[in-house]
Design a protein that fits this description.
Two copies of one chain form a homodimer. Chain A is of the alpha/beta class and about 240 residues long. Chain A has nine helices and seven strands, in the order E-H-E-E-H-E-E-E-H-E-H-H-H-H-H-H. A seven-stranded mixed β-sheet of chain A has the order 2-1-3-4-5-6-7, with helices on both faces. Chain A is elongated. The termini of chain A are far apart.
Chain lengths: ~240, ~240
């Protein structure tokens, strides 16, 4: 396949790397779009920040080539008007330039404007990973919100833990075996089955003593502790 | 060393397994304490649920042997009165019988009633892991609260993500590569450095659209989303 990737960020970097030896890739500067008109591509991938997608799209000349973006939260229809074939290629992963990734493990969520576009998009996706899913813009939105909870917010809780420990002089790294184990357990159990801690044990005296500690030492975390404990216990009732 | 482990739960199971070929272990039934008085031990480890520690302790006859419990949240002084040597052996890990563990990776938090007791406790701890820390009951409490945030609450967020996805027919397992990557990043970065997502990008239009989605579809998660996003942005100001 002949692939144009418009972008200079982490996602563009990893897409380009994952495709080496599998496709003919042209990496295109999102500001100049230099090199985009000279060749004939099978797919044009706009891999820029959410805010910039529309602007980049409007600069692309009318074409017959499939055009997709890679965003979790931007509607597919933003790409309507330039080609009849358009869609979304959303890899569910967080990309950092420094961190190596096993691309074959990454679930890919696809959406396309028509059957033919979906065919090309699937062919493209299969160069990365066998985990190909179809998801419209509404499903992709719920996916993005779910991953904000499971990934961005879990990292934020690790940040809260770090702040709590820093007062006691304990290195945050000491929590890492516990966090690795927490995620490893989810390979085999549902989160509901894997839940441990005072809230699921309904150990009210421990919860009370933790809340008192937070009120005195970290009042900014008090409500979060209360809300998530309540959430865990609400879930118990649904079991 | 001659070790008595009083308990029949997951922690007792793993302690016993970790010590095989390294110490002479007697596993003691917490209800009968059968076999405890017949032998001379170097250390007695009470490894039962938080609520049951005091009750078990009171049944142990007066002794010169070091007595410790393994709880994160129970004060050391609960063991005062039976032996002058007492303490706490708190392994910072979540134990399931089914899951294998690399014991050498587990940080161990020790507290002892006097220097001699601490010496024996350190010797015992070094049979498990080189990651030996000293922590009084107050520090251990902050450690427990931090691990509730980093581990129990992160698992609860994975549960929330599962609920959100179930409405869209997406398997929760598709979020696991993302969660593994989230924890792997913390091996090299602080949570503050590793933070990604709409809140840290201050992408208010995405946050607003997520909150609207939650209000309509999962109002029970609305406040948690708002509070943690606020927390992430408060942290930005501290950078």
């Amino acid at each position: 396949m002949k692939v144009a990737i418009i972008g200079s960020g982490n996602v563009a970097f990893h897409l380009n790397r994952a495709l080496s030896f599998k496709a003919a890739v042209s990496l295109i500067n999102p500001h100049t779009l230099e090199g985009l008109s000279e060749k004939k591509f099978d797919i044009i991938v706009i891999s820029v920040s959410d805010d910039a997608i529309e602007e980049v799209f409007k600069k692309i000349p009318k074409t017959n080539t499939l055009i997709v973006h890679t965003s979790g939260s931007v509607n597919m229809d933003i790409l309507n008007g330039n080609s009849i074939d358009y869609g979304v290629f959303y890899p569910l992963q967080t990309f950092s330039r420094k961190q190596d990734l096993n691309y074959k493990e990454i679930p890919l969520f696809l959406e396309a404007s028509n059957k033919e576009a979906l065919g090309i998009l699937k062919e493209f996706a299969s160069l990365f990973s066998p985990k190909i899913r179809i998801a419209n813009s509404q499903v992709r939105k719920s996916l993005h919100i779910a991953s904000v909870f499971a990934c961005n917010f879990s990292n934020a809780l690790a940040g809260i833990a770090t702040e709590i420990l820093s007062k006691s002089g304990i290195d945050f790294k000491d929590l890492l075996p516990l966090m690795h184990q927490m995620v490893d357990k989810l390979d085999n159990l549902t989160p509901q089955e894997a839940q441990t801690g005072p809230a699921v044990r309904e150990d009210m005296s421990i919860i009370k003593s933790h809340l008192e500690y937070l009120k005195q030492n970290h009042p900014e975390f008090y409500e979060i502790y209360k809300l998530i404990s309540y959430q865990i216990q609400r879930n118990l009732c649904n079991k």
